[in-house]
Write a structure and sequence with these properties.
With 304 residues, this protein is an all-alpha fold. The protein has 14 helices and no strands. The protein has helices at residues 3-22, 29-49, 57-84, 88-99, 107-115, 120-147, 154-162, 165-175, 183-194, 196-207, 217-241, 246-256, 262-270, 275-303. The chain is globular, with a radius of gyration of 18 Å.
Length: 304
């Protein structure tokens, strides 16, 4: 693990939580920081690292992993709902916050810190062709089915995808971006990409909410156990079964073990689906993942 990168993660997270407590920044600050990351830093990272990938069967297995895990999530959440007698809105929140991980905003810097920058392209592919597409399809279906919305039309779905800058960067990186661009372009992209980690963790620290009502403690514990422990274990088994090894397997397991996606929690909250549970799954998940993810990285090193 790169200690300096992990220290930066902790430092910026703590700084964001301090700024939020002291109300030193406007309420819109996390949203603005995330927009900068989405439109500038993340596309730059994609353009740097994705051209180094080589399309092969292992990459297809990597893309398949989040989709297979989503199927497992549906079955596991249904079992938890019946066992714990959860409400309909709590069931929907677990579907969103267990099935959709924070594989970009937290996934990229954590994979980079724990595995090294050579593993970052695999995290990008897992996120863009897995988590992002699942958010735009399964995530919207859940809020439509449980939150009273109407499902998006195919045209609206396509427009949502086309308006996502990192997706355009991903396509360009695969089709036209050289592996070794001119030095001045590479230096510019790297500096923009380097800003991703501190900006993301500052935004996360500004957004964390940890207050939790007692009656929602059981679904919270169930969701955290599924997201941080069981799903990465399933990803490890799937990866081994599909012949993955090395950085691509390790990146897949870590991405599967990322805490709940902030956007998934925001979707649940905006549609009135157990908002306190959604906020707690995101907040506590981020804090606990600072322990669970290094633990998974250590285990993967021992197994290899």
């Amino acid at each position: 693990m790169a200690f300096d990168a992990f220290a930066l993660i902790l430092g910026m997270l703590a700084l964001g939580m301090l700024f939020a407590r002291l109300r030193m920044l406007p309420d819109s600050a996390p949203e603005v920081l995330n927009l900068v990351v989405l439109h500038v830093c993340l596309p730059a990272a994609v353009l740097i690292y994705v051209p180094r990938l080589r399309l092969d069967a292992s990459l297809l297995a990597l893309v398949a992993t989040p989709w297979l895990l989503m199927g497992a999530t549906v079955a596991l959440v249904l079992a938890c709902t019946r066992w714990l007698h959860l409400r309909r809105d709590q069931h929907a929140v677990l579907l969103l916050c267990v099935g959709l991980g924070n594989t970009s905003f937290i996934g990229y810097p954590m994979v980079q810190a724990l595995l090294g920058e050579q593993a970052l392209p695999y995290a990008v592919v897992y996120d863009q062709l897995g988590s992002f597409l699942l958010l735009s399809s399964f995530g919207l279906y859940v809020v439509a089915a449980y939150g009273g919305d109407t499902p998006p039309s195919p045209r609206a779905f396509a427009l949502r995808m086309l308006r996502f800058p990192p997706l355009w960067a991903l396509v360009f990186a695969f089709v036209a971006m050289p592996e070794h661009p001119p030095a001045w372009i590479a230096a510019m992209l790297r500096r923009l990409s380097d800003a991703l980690l501190p900006l993301v963790m500052l935004a996360v620290g500004l957004s964390i909410r940890l207050r939790m009502p007692h009656e929602e403690l059981r679904p919270l514990l169930a969701g955290l156990a599924l997201k941080l422990l069981l799903l990465p274990l399933l990803a490890l088994g799937l990866g081994k079964a599909m012949g993955l090894h090395g950085d691509i397997l390790h990146a897949s397991v870590l991405e599967a073990g990322m805490p709940a996606m902030v956007t998934a929690g925001a979707l649940a909250i905006s549609h009135g689906l157990a908002p306190r549970l959604a906020a707690a799954l995101v907040g506590y998940g981020i804090l606990l993942s600072l322990l669970s993810l290094p633990g998974w990285a250590w285990l993967l090193r021992q197994l290899s």
